[in-house]
Amino acid sequence: MIGYLEGEIRFTSKGRIILFVNGIGFIVFVPSSTSFLEKENVSLFIHTHLREDNLSLFGFASAEDLDLFELLISVSGVGPKIGLGIFSVSEAENIVHAIETSNLSFFTSISGVGKKTAQRIILDLKSKLSKGDINMKNLEGSSELVDSLTSLGFQKNEISIIISDIDNSLPLGTQIKLALSLLHK
């Protein structure tokens, strides 16, 4: 497994570089938001992704970015290309913030990420990033709706994802119907 490379960039295009290290040119996929110049010397933390028919290298400027990338691709339905796509749209701090605040629209705006995948990313990673504490900020002001949904068997972490999509000025019955339709998608 390759975990770190240091060398000179010989070729660069959007989202991909060839890094020349000790006489070997490695193709490394990088976030397209990162810009490199040919002949530039760089150091990258590497995720080696091995499939039966392919070996791919994904490079990041910091170990923290690499750790977040590996957390993202640990989620079912999120592969390295989608993980890299998330990093191409935003920086690590914004990605973590989107997870902590259950920002579905942040993730669904990324090519290849649908609503269910975005919900899975948030549910799977929120507890890992916040050391087990689920941020229930989105549940404030909707206690009747939350109580109704929990009595129907839904978990608060599931409810926190969809609660911001429901207008709390609507009658409670309408809010519950909307919530159920969102939870069953």
Explain the overall architecture.
One of its GO terms (cellular component) is cytoplasm. It holds the Pfam family RuvA_N. The chain crosses the membrane at residues 17-37. The protein contains 8 helices and 5 strands, in the order βββββαααααααα. It is α+β, with helices and mostly antiparallel strands and 185 residues long. It folds into 3 domains: 4-60, OB fold (Dihydrolipoamide Acetyltransferase, E2P), CATH 2.40.50.140; 64-129, DNA polymerase, domain 1 (Orthogonal Bundle); 139-183. β1 (4-13) and β2 (16-21) form a beta hairpin.
Descriptive key words:
3 domains; DNA repair; 185 residues; DNA polymerase, domain 1; OB fold (Dihydrolipoamide Acetyltransferase, E2P); elongated; alpha+beta; 42% helix; five-stranded mixed barrel
Spatial strand arrangement across the major sheet? 1-2-3-5-4
Catalogue the unreliable spans: 131-141
Strand runs, count: 5
Sheet/helix structural class: alpha+beta
Per-chain topology:
Elements: E1 4-13, E2 16-21, E3 24-29, E4 41-51, E5 54-60, H1 63-73, H2 80-89, H3 92-100, H4 104-108, H5 115-129, H6 143-151, H7 156-162, H8 172-183
Parallel strand pairs: 3-5
Antiparallel strand pairs: 1-2, 1-4, 2-3, 4-5
Helix pairs in contact: 1-2, 3-5, 6-8
